[in-house]
C-alpha cells in the first residue's frame, strides 16, 4: 500500500490534504494512509492557542478546527504523533491515543496500532533530561514551566515501548534519534544546516531516548521531523546472535509543511491484502499497557524504571503469548478501534472570536472508555483526583520534589547524562527568537491570518517526493550529493524541483563568559524558523 509521510504540519491541514489530492489528479497516486511526525497543532479554539509553547507571532488558528467541527473531513486516514508545538491541553486528553477528529488519530504519549497488517508505532514530544524521569503531572491551565514540560518525553513511555518483542514496520518520533546523522550524508546535512555542526560533532543533536528505541525496536522505517530539513539515512543493526537475521532501518526526516518545501514523501509498504481498511489496536501493545499499568506516575517526583540491578523485584514487563491471547479474547478477536470521536471543547467561530477563553482540564470520554475496557489508569482522572484531595504535587500545587525510583527507594543514577552538553538548562526547541523573550505573556493569542483569508499560495509539487524502493545511503561523508542521488535512484520520482534556496547563515562565536552554546542554540532556532516568515 502507499503511505504518505509528512513532517511538521503546523496546523496547515488544508495545504497538506490539497497537496495529496493534487497528487492524485495529476499522477493517479492515492495514498492509503497519511502519517504526520509531530507539530500537528490540533487547535480547536482560542484556549488551545494559549496552551502552545510558541511566541505570540506563531499563534494562529490555522485550519484544524474545521475538521474538528465536521465542516471538513480528512480525505485519507491520518495518524500523527505530538511534537513540541501543540495544543497540549487537547492532546493531554488522550494519553493512550484517540481520535481528535473523524479519520484523524493521535497515537498518544506513545502507542502502536495496525493498519492493513502494517504495525505502526510512535512516541510524542521531545527529549529533555531534566523532565525525563518525572510523571505526567501537568494539567491546564499551564504555567511558564509546565506549558513546555507537558510535551517532554518521559521514561515510562520509552520503557513501555522497550517491552515490545514483535517486529515494528514503521516508527515515528518528532526529534531525531541521536547519532542517526552518522548513518547518512552528514557532510550534505551540514552544508544545508551549518549551525548543526557543533551539536553533530559533539554528538548532542537529537534524542538519546529515541536512539535507544531505534536500537531496540529496529523498525523497517523510522520517520522524524522537528529540525525542518530533509535527511535520509540507512542504519544496519548489529545482531545479538548468529541465528538472528540482519536488520536495517531506513530513516527519513521530513521538512515542515509550507509551500515550496519538500515536506511530503510517498513510500510503498508491504501489507496484508486480506486485512480490512480500519485502524486497529495492537494486541501486544495493549498487553504491555496492562502489564505496566502499576508504574503510572502523575507526580513531579523523578522515578527510574525497573532495571536488573538488584534493586527491583521485577524488571521485565514484556508480555507472553498467553497475555496477548487474553487481549484478543477480551476483544472477541475484533481489534477495530471504535470510531468514538466526541467534541470535548467549543469550536472556534471566526464570526465570534473569544480571545479571553481559558483552557480547562478535561476528561475525554474516549480515554474513559479505553481505560475501562482494558483496566488501565486514566491519567487525567488520577491528576484530577489528586487536585481535589489536595494531595497532588503536580502543576496545581507547589512543593519540593523528591528524587525517588519506582520502588520508592533512594534515587538511582539517571540512564542519561543530565548535563546534556548544556542544553538541558536552555530549550533550543521552543523557538526562542531574539524578538521573542522567554518571559512573554503566554495568555496572548492571535487568530490572524484568519482561515477564511489564508495566505495566498498555489499548491506546488515541489512539496512531494516519491521514495525509491531502496534507500542505499552511504555511511558518513562518502558523497556530497548522496541525498540527491538517493531521490533519483530506484525509480524515484521528483515531480518538481525546489524553487527556493537555503539562506546563508553567519556563524556567531562565543563571548568571554562562555555563552557560545546559548548563542549557538538561538542561532539554530533563528535559522530554522526565519524561513517561515519568508514563505508566508
Describe the structure.
With 536 residues, the chain is an alpha/beta fold. The protein has one domain: Purple Acid Phosphatase, chain A, domain 2 (4-Layer Sandwich), CATH 3.60.21.10. The protein is built from 15 helices and 15 strands. The longest helix is centred in the last third of the chain and has 20 residues. It is globular and about 65 Å long. The C terminus is likely disordered.
Count of runs of 4 or more consecutive helical residues: 15
CATH architecture annotation name? 4-Layer Sandwich
Give the strand content.
Answer: 5-15%
Q: Remind me, CATH topology?
A: Purple Acid Phosphatase, chain A, domain 2
Largest sheet: 8 strands, mixed
Structural class: alpha/beta
* Oligomer class: single chain
Provide a compact summary of the structure.
The chain is α/β, with parallel strands linked by helices and about 525 residues long.
Topology:
Layout lengths: L1 E5 L6 H15 L5 E4 L9 H5 L13 H6 L8 E3 L7 H5 L5 E4 L2 E3 L3 E6 L2 E6 L22 H4 L5 H7 L8 E4 L12 H7 L4 H5 L6 H10 L3 E4 L6 E6 L11 E6 L10 E5 L10 E3 L1 H9 L29 H10 L34 H10 L4 H11 L74 E3 L15 H7 L4 E2 L21 H20 L1
Parallel strand pairs: 1-2, 2-3, 3-5, 7-8, 8-9, 9-11, 12-14
Antiparallel strand pairs: 1-12, 4-5, 6-7, 6-13, 10-11, 14-15
Helix pairs in contact: 10-11
Structural key phrases:
single chain, alpha/beta, eight-stranded mixed beta sheet, seven-stranded mixed beta sheet, 15 helices, 12% strand, disordered C terminus, DBR1_C
